[in-house]
Amino acid sequence: MPTIVPFETLTELFINLSRKYKGAGKKPFYFKPTPDAEYQPIDWDQVTDDVYSLAAYLIEQGIEKGDRVGILSENRYEWAAVDLAIQVVGAINVSLYTTLPAHQCQYILKDSGAKIFFVSTGLQLKKAVEVFEDCDELMEVVAFDVPKLEHLMEEPYVNMFEDVLIEGGKHLESHKATIKERVKMVQPDDVATLIYTSGTTGKPKGAMLTHNNIVSNVKAATQHIYWDDTDRLLSFLPLCHSFERTAGYYAMISSGVEVYYAESVDTVSKNMPEAKPTIMISVPRLFEKMYNLIVKSVEEGSDAKKKIFNWAVETGRKYAEGKRGLVSLQKKIADKLVFDKLKERTGGHVRLFVSGGAALPPEIDTFFQCAGMNILQGYGLTETSPVMAANKPGQEKVGAVGTIIPGVTVGIQSLDNGKIIAEISGEDYPTDLSSEAGEILCKGPNVMKGYWKNEEATKEMIDNDNWLHTGDVGKFDEGFLKITDRIKHMIVNAGGKNIYPGPIEDLLKTSKWIDQIVVVGEGQNYMAAIIVPDFEVVAKFAKDQGLSFDGNEELIEPEEVKGVYKKELRSFSKELASHEKIRDFRLVANEFTVETGEITPTLKVKRRVIADKYGHLIEDIFKNDKD
């Protein structure tokens, strides 16, 4: 479906939506005032009033076109209202992950030169107060919530969001002419936001995304994948990430989709039945957890339950392959016995799952397809605003990230000689094209303007022919793009074989015993792994075996537990080439988390951090090989 109003900038998107829905009672956003409350709507007239009041306040505080305004907040209505006000006055949104520690917030605020900093909870306000004095250009902090620690509000530069709205409302009349001028001044090539890449190495870099970068991507994604004003989305991926920003926010409101805000990432399973979304935009981690919960439940059940489950999956597979007749009747029975329960957990109305941010394991993709809950896997980077490719409803290819979206060109560059092996533009789609693997390159209106105050990094990312180098390895398979892994993740073993750990990890993560895994073996004769067990599964096993333990440290020590993993790895290794097989492993007692630094806010593993933190275990694995 085309977007419901014309717009060439995000500023125009707000202005035209505001005009279209004036007095219509259209409700774009829903939130929960308390955990036990029902979802409450906010209509466009309220959004319009709030955004203009905030815009007047920003102008009153001296925010000029091109100035930076920071937001440190979970997904909530206030985030959207502040963002739209920033776009109205022609400023630049600088968004931060709520999981960042204070010193990283300080780096981004100083690097961007943010002048006003909007924060959500008391926890985030505490970070802002801690770094304020060291951020020379920062003038003010605005808190969405009243903090429990009252002393935080005693700082003269801290104001409450509600007070700011009232104050802005008082100045709105006097700033109406200025707001109109600012709206006219915003051009498609102006920077709309700085999105700092969390990165797995080095300092964060601020990707400069223009209005045209994002608008072109919104229009292309909306043309590629159908959604309309009868849909509703549950928003829970961080809005400071380009995937949720473009697909889960701008694309949604531009098509009239209602956005429901999850209370937090941890409450998604609770909020799905409450919001009853028709669209879910997620990273693979959610689907992995859903899949593993189901597999765990089946394996703990009776033999009859296992047989019914396996029969239902096989029936779903036949139906997904296009078989009908008796299979149609069997599918209805399979739904009633097995799959409808899974659908109920998602609220019972989801018609569109969209997955991005990381590779979706093919086994999990296939399972959801068998359940009649197809996942549209997509691909892109922060620097490409972000979507480059996505599967279309009814045209999904398991193991692929889809076809190239309109307006975007993707090339495959040989890793050997640097030549372009294959090239596809979204307007000219050759379904028969296949290619060898190489680095994925991108051209198009979605490619960022560059990195903020970092020409060197920009030149490393975008070459003289305007190709953006993704650092990902992939290939075309009958016109569909497939991702192999990151170039920098490639492991070269002692025999000189190139091994990409991503697909191996994706395969092993489908085991009910494995929660997280990192494959290691650079320069070694074989591959090994650092494994975070599914502690709930292991604990049940230990109790069934009569093993006593106190905490995860003791839980992973018994030989009986290690024996299970040896057997599991041997079983999965049958599907791997000899040089890819996992020959040894070590179990660790703590989950990889954002807070402890092993994964990024977008849930990508920081391999160097893992290598440093668990270097003693890796060394222990391979020491006998060296002796």
TrEMBL record:
Keywords: ATP-binding, Nucleotide-binding. InterPro entries: AMP-bd_C_sf, AMP-binding_CS, AMP-dep_synth/lig_dom, ANL_N_sf. The keyword Nucleotide-binding applies. It catalyses: a long-chain fatty acid + ATP + CoA = a long-chain fatty acyl-CoA + AMP + diphosphate. Residues 32-452 form the AMP-dependent synthetase/ligase domain. Pfam families: AMP-binding, AMP-binding_C_3. This is AMP-dependent synthetase/ligase.
